[in-house]
Amino acid sequence: MTIRAMRRGGAASLLALLAAGAVSAQTVSDRGLSYTLYGTPGLIETPSALSAKDGQIAATVGAFDGQTRTTFTFQLLPNLSGSFRYTRIEDYTLPGQSVRDETYFDRSFDLRYRFNDETATMPAVAIGLQDFLGTGAYGAEYLVATKTFGDTLRVSAGLGWGRFGSHGGFDNPLGVLASDFDNRPSLDFGEGGTFALDQLFRGDAALFGGVEYAPSETLTLKVEYSSDAYDRESELGLIERDSPLNFGAVYRPLPGVQLGASWLYGSELALTGTFLIDPTERPYGPGLDPAPVPVRIRDADARVAQSWDRRAIPEATIGAALQQALAAEGVELSSIQLSDRAVRLRYTNTRYRSEAQAMGRIARMLSLGLPASIEQFTLEPMQRGVPLSAVTLSRSDIESFADVAGGTAALAQRRVLDDAGSAAALAELPRIDDRFSWGIAPYGRITVFDSEAPFQLEFGAQLTASYEITDSLVASGTFRQQLYTNREDPELVVAEEGEPHPVRRNAALYAKEGTTGIRDLTLAHYGRLAPDVYTRATLGYLEEMYGGASTEVLWKPADSRLGLGAEVNYAKQRDFDLGLGFQDYDVVTGHASAYYDFDNRFYGQVDVGRYLAGDWGATFILDREFENGWSVGGYFTLTDLPFEAFGEGSFDKGIRVSIPLDYVVGQPTRREASSTLASLQRDGGARLRVDGRLYEVVRDGHLNDLDDGWGRFWK
């Protein structure tokens, strides 16, 4: 996992943001709902059929003698959750491997689906797959039911396979459907990371269950009967399993924080800690934004006026006054078109994450500063000098709906969304902001999940500068000075026969040798070929490891859910010292991309093309975004590179998390921090990292994103 700032320059660490969000997060609505040592809702080690609140994120660390499990669980939908787990086990080896006196690191993924809500007579029932993408060290499947009695007592009982079918097992009841269910094949994941269908719900089954008692909102007591025999661990002498009974307690000292202790199998003391984040809510409610100016209401005579006196109020005076007023709101007004009854503005919102919120602030200013005869406001937001759309509002509607219940929705029904118009009729305004900007800030990078060095830390200071040659042509760069790293001296990775060129595996050498150097140095141009067609061209040192040229075109109508794009890049690998030099390796990469905005803030993306190692394939991405700016999603990439050549993990996959800084600080800002939790960084499916790809730039001003943020229009 690498923690770095997103496209708008957020420099805060993701881990710090998670901790800040956890303290102010809302507790789970279900009394006593807590997390297991596996980081999933349940008892102590066995699962329950409960689901967390929709959208909730849980980060759990569970440990007992010789084992530490770190789990990230996300409630994707009200009934569906997914988990990514990273485990450290001392002196452990998989079956079939020679016994080694060293620490084993394991990565695994879970899925759980709840079929129904609990009722007065029916329990909730869920089905789950544990470690279905990984080595299978924790591989298990289960069917579990949970019933609550009153406000304090909850009982769960289930049927398990795999690990959950290894103690007190009996013939698989699914054997009546097909004899294939009777036996569980020996596990052979090869490089790991693949979906072993022939394992699922196979072999002996066993019963598990337990009771939870919550005497208060802050304390839950648990006892469970576990059907996990810990066969491999017992064989290696890592655990003494004297009893199938486990006992535990969970305490909630703060909202969003759970601390647990348990006694396992009559021999082991285990501790857990869980931090809960609710991205559907805001720690500061509506935020700490400065109050907007009030809407000025015209009298009846003013509303019917057909013109205004240009000698008394010249157009140039109006433009200059609006530019100054909007600058105080973080809006850069670039050009304006005025007539007797209408105004049209083209501007860049630099402060508010929601374009709709910026529009609301602008509309208020226009109601104060424009002649009374001007009835129609057309707002054309820009980003990176490219107009995104045109939203036309009636001034009378703004006056009517500003302070009434349901006014936000009523205004949304009346607005008109179209593509941005021609620039020919617009009068350019002289810029009053500084085209040159710079800043010095700390940076941090944490890399985890590497089997050789599971936790690597790097931090230092970076100087960032940019110069806007024009609104759409920007030169920018970042110079870094490393101050500390705990990385041990990495060795140069050289591709062996059948392996791809090490396009990413030598990343550690850039941290070792590039202690002082240029992270990126680019010249980027954005444009619009046609009303729905956008372009980008970026030249220079594109990222830490590669320089070259990147070009992109995107078709994305303002009122369409669908976007189509294409990108072609020439990339050359940089020297490890992050200077101006290059290595011998170069490659032409490119992708055709499709983007789709689903309902409920789900965004899908498919990229098909050629990757940095020369392999051909496709990447599939699905993100869920929340009204307050949080985004959580996952991706996987399959290419023509064989799993054996890819190496451990078999193919590229991971989880993406993005946190808006305004969620944490409460003040409006467009900055955000992002992290990708990937099981491994390898060479297959590796893509060039280029700042400012078009879809993320232009969609803010398009229909669905405007709808999603329209609730903040009057904020």
Chain-wise SSE layout:
Elements: E1 2-5, H1 14-24, E2 57-64, E3 67-77, E4 80-90, E5 103-114, E6 124-134, E7 140-149, E8 153-162, E9 206-213, E10 219-225, H2 231-235, E11 245-254, E12 257-264, E13 268-277, H3 300-303, H4 315-327, E14 331-338, E15 342-349, H5 355-369, E16 376-383, E17 386-387, E18 390-394, H6 395-401, H7 407-414, E19 416-418, E20 427-428, E21 436-448, E22 455-470, E23 473-485, H8 507-513, E24 516-530, E25 533-541, E26 546-555, E27 562-574, E28 582-597, E29 602-610, E30 616-625, E31 631-639, H9 643-646, E32 652-660, H10 661-665, E33 672-678, H11 694-698, H12 703-709
Parallel strand pairs: 15-16
Antiparallel strand pairs: 1-33, 2-3, 2-13, 3-4, 4-5, 5-6, 6-7, 7-8, 8-9, 9-10, 10-11, 11-12, 12-13, 14-15, 14-20, 16-17, 16-18, 18-19, 21-22, 22-23, 23-24, 24-25, 25-26, 26-27, 27-28, 28-29, 29-30, 30-31, 31-32, 32-33
Helix pairs in contact: 4-5, 6-7
Describe the structure.
There is one protein chain. It contains twelve helices and 33 strands. The chain is globular. It has 715 residues and is mainly beta. The protein starts with a strand and ends in a 6-residue tail after the last helix. It folds into three domains: 252 residues, monomeric porin ompg (Porin, Beta Barrel); 133 residues, no CATH class; 271 residues, Porin. The strands form three sheets. The chain has a 14-stranded antiparallel sheet with strand order 1-33-32-31-30-29-28-27-26-25-24-23-22-21. A twelve-stranded antiparallel barrel has the order 2-3-4-5-6-7-8-9-10-11-12-13. Strands 14, 15, 16, 17, 18, 19 and 20 form a seven-stranded mixed sheet that branches. The N terminus is likely disordered. It comes from Limimaricola variabilis. Keywords: Signal.
